[in-house]
Amino acid sequence: MRRVLANQELLLIGLMALLVLAVSLKFPDFFGLQTLFNVLTASMVGILFAVGVMLVVVSGGIDVSFLAVGILSAYATVKYGPQGDGPFGALPVFALSTAIGLGLGLVNAAVVIVARTSVLIATLATSSIYLGTMFAFVGGEVISTLPQPLQSLGSTHLFTAKGAVRGTTSLNILILVVLVVCVLVWAFLRFTIAGRSVFAVGGDAEAASRAAISVPRTRVLVFAIAGAVAGLAGIISVTLSGRADPTTFMGRELDTLAAVVLGGVAIAGGKGTVRGAVLGVLLISLVTASLVPLGIPTIWQRAAVGALLIAGILLQTAIGRRQRIRPILDAPAPEVTNA
Amino acid sequence: MSAPIVEAVGVSKRFGGVRALTEVSVAFRPGEVHCIAGENGCGKSTLLKVISGAHRPTSGQVIVDGTTYDHLTPRQALSAGIEVIYQDFSLMPNLTAAENIALPRSVAGGRRLYSRTAARTLAERAVVRLGVEIELDIPVGELTVAERQLTAIARALAHEAKFIAMDEPTTALTWKEVDALFAAVGRLKEAGVALAFISHKMQEIFSIAERVTVLRNGAVVTSGRPDEFTHASLAETMTGRGSQSFDRVAPRNKNRAPALRVRGLGREPLFADVDLEVGQGEIVGLAGLLGSGRTEIAEAICGVRPAQTGTVEVLGKAINVRSLSDGVAAGIGYVPADRLTQGLFLDQPIGDNLVATHLPARRGFLNGPAIERRKSSVVRDLRIKLGKLTDPVRSLSGGNAQRVLLGKWLVGEPKVLILNGPTVGVDVGSKFDILGVLNAQSLQGLGVLIISDDVPELISMCHRVLVVRSGRIVRELSGDQLREDTVVEAVTA
Amino acid sequence: MPSERFRTLLLTMGGRASFIRLLVVAVAIVVVFGVLNPSVFLSGQNLQYVELASPEVAILSLAMALTMLTAGIDLSVVSIANLSGVVAALLMTNGQSTGLALLGAVGTALACGAVNGLLVGYKHVPPILATLATGQLFSGLALVASGGTVVKGLPESFTRIALVTVAGVPLIFWVMLIVAAIVGVVVAKTPLGFRMRLVGANPTAADFSGIRRARVLLATYVMSGALGGVAGLIISARAGGANSDYGASYVLLAVVIAVLAGVDPEGGYLTVAGVVIAAIAMQLLGAGLLSLSVSSHVVNICQGLLLVTMVLLNTWGTALSGLFARRRVTA
């Protein structure tokens, strides 16, 4: 299966290359820093959400509360949190939002474990509780004056280059945070026993518990990390957009899930990579960025992503259904595959 | 005698209302292979799961190295050097074989970091120690059943275990692989490891056991050295009955068209050139080891996985089976091997299970009265013991559940009934009732094809036994040739 | 005996303990808000609001519940509703008759359902994936068709559907009851419904019982799509326009209602009466909370809490009642 998964990731990269090529043929300017920066900037928040969701999906469940967690953490932090000052003033703000996200993740874990229900249903419930709490008790109005450190962070760029046509194009410094989180989650999944346990639980929870893995503890860990990452994603989104709008993500859950699925994460659990999730988000951002130069109204974006998703899923299922059959007949038949 | 490494003392286990184990006490000593024998469903596997911490006993204790536990956790068990090879392997299908082999110890040992190379080295060593070959770097879910079984065995051997329990470890293996396993068992024995070996295969029990404990209905019946038993006495202790047989009347009427005639059935690379015939009122056995192609042949005849070549006739009429519903329409019934996952809708009402295949309808709507009539007539005919027809099948005992499965097919009055392991996991009394029902149905003209590796059962039931090996029918035994030794020999040759 | 007859009636509507719990919750909502603020909650206006708001939600939930019966899920149902609504609205604003527009909407919905059914039944795509993807596609198409705005200017002959009352009850409420009755008959009284339940309970055993699973699943998703279409028409009649983004939160609400009704997402059990009651109960809860003039967002919280409570009860309910019974014996 690893070959297949790698194939899916290669496929995504190939598809992205094809898109860039197609658009660049028409507009040579498209192939440049501006597009890269635009796609990366558009993907930053999505990547974080996707990585968190990927973790939960790998452990065997579909989380739909991550956007509620993200925006509640960020909005509450901006409204009540430290205003912060000095060069590292943003640090406590980011830490608080991440911590709130972590706490909400723990609530998710508690509901899943105690009610012994599916993650989908548990997070459906918690997400409407989180959103309701935000609007009812924290507030519903857009906060357009952010704490000073967030404002300056929002305009601190890692790179600034001349725009393809005019003006300048830049990449925010927060891309480093996104990168660090991706590397950390990747390392967690690959190099720690707890990370491998996430895969084990997602593959077969019963077998995992017989192999001495504590299934509840693994779940708690997964939801805590996913919650913290969502909280971080929320505050980054607020910082980048320069305002805290509680309705930012309303009803966008399926978009992130779509990206994760495109990235080859198995929705039934047990399989998935950080790389895949990131590629899925990047592909969708690139599709969006390519539509206009290709002469397709942006209004087609969603339909295009949907069609892409169906194609990807059909491919994945077609490959997944090929099974090795152990030959029974004496005639030596070297490794036969059969659809 | 040396002190036991692992000991179960008065262990009882209930699942809801069902008693799986009653006051079982058994001790496993270093350097000894201790066989736990018994029929399917006697509680062997449950006992192992209590010892490994997968199940919590209702009462009783497990003593490991002198420490008494009311209930072990899997982690405690692993840390104490207890390894279990489960019947279902209990592997994580999405992880590689190497990781499956290495991970449990790292978890139980409280390690934090995982190293792919270390896992790989450990797994390689275990596989070499076992003397077999497994692809270590692809997910276990893509391995064949035999490779998965070997992975599970390698996992138990990978660590310095003090006690290794094996739950029917040989079912999917070839003779060569079984020899390798037995050689490994011999080495472990010399190293002072205590071994529990669960099996219901006589040859295996007598060839490697130092001690045999027989379980029946969840309780210990007897325990002793293998030389205190003969094949026959051990079998009798396991089943609790002497050998019993049916009157094989119903001489087949050569003039009538056979209920089922199969010619030249084949499907690459599973089976080829299958010719067989089941007369009306005849019971034919299809004997073969797991992986011999017996299930594949049966599934091809009834349409689950159609054949590529060959013809199938029912009552002399050629039929084209592309799917199971074609088979049903043509009068072929198929009772699958795995009752729980393939045969029954466990949480659905008993009555609805009975009519699932043959559903009376009128003008697009369910025919309620006809459905109720069918349900009650099957319950009456098969003497199914139940509370209400609306109770879920889950509430039934193994024997009654199997009768429901049988009834589901008999309700459509098929011409041919193909049964895959019809008495697996069924208690002795019900087993004979079920075989009795089949016998009675065959007297009324039903052609029956039974697939089984339970040789005594085949011999007591069948007019003829066909032997499958490597995807081909290699022998037909009938009359005087139909003896336990000849069938076993033909099957395993 | 009347109590016996009542018991039988209850059993045909939903035999599980979860159904009784739902009834208790529904009654409790009416009683609590009836006592707390009788003048508003029990007013005709409030009742009418509930009657008008329930049908679309109930019909979408029925669609969701049907797919859950087969152990599936239809995340695309709201997208289908919106696409059908947009198609109907475009037909009408381009001068076609209302009847043709209704046909066009239902045809669109059936086609969408068939796409889902083909993916799930014949291509063996997990339902959650298939409908996640088609949902994106359908709502994307609706977005394109509508041009990203609300298609307005619907003829009065259409918008009147949402205003007409029959015997003092809004027409769309009657539509909901009729749709529910049809679904109930299909599920309980036809071979298709019987087979849907078995496919949901154990797909492998269904295959081994000679049930053509792919066909059953296709029929299920076509039905679910059709219900989505009907809901879409009701939504646009009520709103006086159609748009691709209407009721994005309805997907989750439909799942919540189905689960509240006791429908098993793992398949094999459906109570149509339960779904309708749960949908109305959710609207009553909303209306009740609003009648106490709390923030409309407290409604969200309460819906979430209610779902958690019901799931907890479904998991631990039997254990709790066992505890209770034992205590009574010792007392």
From TrEMBL, chain A:
Domain of life per record: Bacteria
An example Gene Ontology molecular-function term: transmembrane transporter activity
Keywords attached to this entry: Cell inner membrane, Cell membrane, Membrane, Sugar transport, Transmembrane, Transmembrane helix, Transport
Metal-binding keyword on record: no
Transmembrane segments: 36-57, 64-81, 93-115, 127-150, 170-189, 220-242, 254-270, 277-296, 302-319
UniProt-annotated location(s): Cell membrane
Membrane topology label: Multi-pass membrane protein
GO terms for cellular component: plasma membrane
Keyword RNA-binding: no
UniProt xrefs under PANTHER family: ABC TRANSPORTER PERMEASE PROTEIN YPHD-RELATED, ABC TRANSPORTER PERMEASE PROTEIN YPHD-RELATED-RELATED
Protein name stated in the entry: ABC transporter permease
Origin species: Kribbella sandramycini
UniProtKB/TrEMBL annotation, chain B:
Pfam family, one: ABC_tran
InterPro entries with a match to the protein in the record: AAA+_ATPase, ABC_carbohydrate_import_ATPase, ABC_transporter-like_ATP-bd, ABC_transporter-like_CS, P-loop_NTPase
Residue ranges constituting the ABC transporter domain according to the UniProt record: 6-242, 255-493
GO MF term set: ATP binding; ATP hydrolysis activity
Alphabetically ordered keywords of this record: ATP-binding, Cell membrane, Membrane, Nucleotide-binding, Repeat, Sugar transport, Translocase, Transport
Name the record gives this protein: Simple sugar transport system ATP-binding protein
The organism of origin for this protein: Kribbella sandramycini
Automatic annotation (TrEMBL), chain C:
Localization terms from the record: Cell membrane
Main localisation: membrane
Pfam families: BPD_transp_2 (PF02653)
InterPro entries reported in the protein's UniProt record: ABC_transp_permease
Keyword line: Cell inner membrane, Cell membrane, Membrane, Sugar transport, Transmembrane, Transmembrane helix, Transport
GO MF annotation terms: transmembrane transporter activity
TM regions (residue ranges): 20-42, 62-92, 99-122, 128-151, 163-188, 216-235, 247-263, 269-292, 304-325
Membrane topology, as annotated: Multi-pass membrane protein
Gene Ontology cellular component list: plasma membrane
PANTHER family, sorted: ABC TRANSPORTER PERMEASE PROTEIN YPHD-RELATED, ABC TRANSPORTER PERMEASE PROTEIN YPHD-RELATED-RELATED
Protein name according to UniProt: ABC transporter permease
Organism ancestry: Bacteria, Bacillati, Actinomycetota, Actinomycetes, Propionibacteriales
